[in-house]
């Protein structure tokens, strides 16, 4: 039988161990937070081909980046939309946002900026940020601008798709189209909606023009000049002419699931869970694939060099577009444990722009 003094000694040891573990964990968390705050503005270059042109700190964590033409950068946080001058980083105007569960990039067309927030869909004047029109949307916190054209705006909030007149905000139609979020494409007089197959609808009336059926779900797609690029069965990448309804090419490619399709000139850039691939758009030939990290995202090309974020969006890798050789990298010294997909790296003809936390950076050829 244990004595009372032995029990007290055992309990004291347990308390001591618990105190030590708790104190160690607290100190570790404080060190991580402190080091993250100290290093948040530091960039570590290893043969990175571009040099910093400007940087800017904003209020609130940056959620999405997008471009409005060649002169204006749109930066979205949880509570504000910023319009910046691409060349200098100067703030041109701001617009307050209502909180939204999932933020998506603002999209610009014909001198208007379209966005959704917790209140609905809004159109802003690109020159000064003034409100042009606003419409409420059911489940506004989960709604997103899916596509904009010269005349129409498509808003997705599963399973529905709304189409609005771009200039006035008039709702043209609203229909249930797919139980998951869709990535539609407006081309000519039709809007094309990939789901289990593809449905073509009259963009103004919502009437079905034609539809195909497939047992495979098209989760993501890329578009250019009436061509849809997708990988519905995870075994190949397909180029599909939406007007003629013909498969232009079918390239075998084993993939967990393609997360992104980005059209960059003559190239098609795609990422999946484990690889980053570059294909030739004309015939679908795989130029190269690189297994460079888990869930790499936001692939772009600047002056014939490819750039991509790693999964946590803490490192920008630079690749030779001819063979996939890594030629440099830029490390953003900041620690995060939870990351989600966001558009935080974009490109102009001669500039790379990316964000991390509440900081935004522009890199180009000439050092400033």
Structural class: mainly beta
Strand order of the largest sheet: 1-30-29-28-27
Radius of gyration: 24 Å
Into which percentage range does the β-strand content fall? over 45%
**Span of the ends, CA to CA:** 78 Å
Shape: globular
Number of helices: 1
Can you summarize the main beta sheet?
Answer: 5 strands, antiparallel
User: Low-confidence stretches at least 5 residues in length (pLDDT < 50)?
Assistant: 27-39
How many distinct beta strands? Answer: 33
The share of residues in helices is under 10%
Question: Roughly what is the average pLDDT, rounded to an integer?
Answer: 86
What does this 3D model show about the protein?
The protein has 368 residues and is mainly beta. It is built from one helix and 33 strands. It has one helix spanning 4-39, and strands at 43-46, 51-57, 62-68, 72-77, 80-85, 91-96, 107-109, 112-117, 120-125, 131-135, 144-148, 152-157, 160-165, 171-176, 185-187, 190-195, 197-202, 208-211, 221-224, 227-230, 236-241, 246-252, 260-264, 267-271, 276-280, 286-290, 297-302, 305-309, 315-320, 326-332, 345-347, 352-356, 359-364. It has a five-stranded antiparallel β-sheet, with no helix packed on it. A hairpin with a 2-residue loop joins strand 4 (72-77) and strand 5 (80-85). The longest helix has 36 residues, at 4-39. The relative contact order is 0.13.
């Amino acid at each position: 039988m244990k004595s009372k003094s032995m029990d007290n000694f055992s309990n004291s040891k347990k308390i001591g161990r618990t105190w030590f573990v708790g104190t160690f964990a607290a100190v570790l968390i404080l060190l991580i937070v402190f080091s993250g705050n100290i290093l948040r503005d530091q960039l570590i270059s290893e043969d990175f081909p571009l040099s910093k042109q400007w940087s800017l700190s904003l209020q609130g964590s940056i959620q999405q980046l997008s471009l409005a033409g060649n002169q204006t950068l749109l930066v979205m946080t949880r509570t504000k939309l910023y319009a910046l001058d691409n060349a200098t980083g100067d703030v041109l105007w701001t617009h307050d946002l209502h909180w939204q569960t999932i933020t998506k990039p603002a999209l610009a067309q014909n001198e208007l900026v379209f966005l959704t927030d917790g209140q609905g869909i809004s159109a802003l004047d690109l020159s000064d940020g003034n409100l042009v029109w606003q419409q409420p949307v059911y489940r506004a916190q989960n709604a997103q601008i899916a596509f904009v054209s010269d005349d129409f705006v498509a808003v997705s909030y599963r399973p529905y798709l709304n189409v609005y007149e771009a200039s006035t905000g008039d709702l043209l139609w609203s229909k249930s189209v797919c139980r998951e979020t869709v990535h539609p494409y407006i081309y000519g007089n039709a809007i094309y909606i990939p789901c289990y197959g593809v449905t073509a609808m009259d963009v103004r009336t919502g009437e079905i023009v034609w539809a195909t059926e497939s047992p495979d779900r098209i989760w993501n797609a890329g578009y250019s000049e009436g061509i849809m690029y997708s990988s519905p069965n995870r075994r190949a990448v397909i180029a599909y002419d939406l007007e003629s309804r013909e498969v232009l090419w079918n390239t075998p490619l084993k993939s967990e699931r393609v997360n992104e399709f980005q059209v960059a000139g003559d190239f098609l850039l795609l990422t999946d869970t484990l690889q980053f691939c570059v294909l030739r758009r004309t015939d679908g030939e795989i130029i190269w694939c690189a297994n460079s990290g888990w869930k790499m995202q936001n692939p772009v090309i600047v002056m014939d060099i490819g750039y991509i974020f790693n999964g946590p969006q803490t490192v920008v890798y630079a690749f030779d577009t001819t063979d996939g050789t890594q030629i440099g990298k830029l490390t953003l010294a900041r620690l995060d444990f939870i990351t989600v997909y966001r558009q935080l790296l974009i490109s102009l003809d001669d500039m790379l722009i990316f964000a991390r936390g509440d900081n935004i950076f522009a890199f180009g050829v000439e050092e400033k």
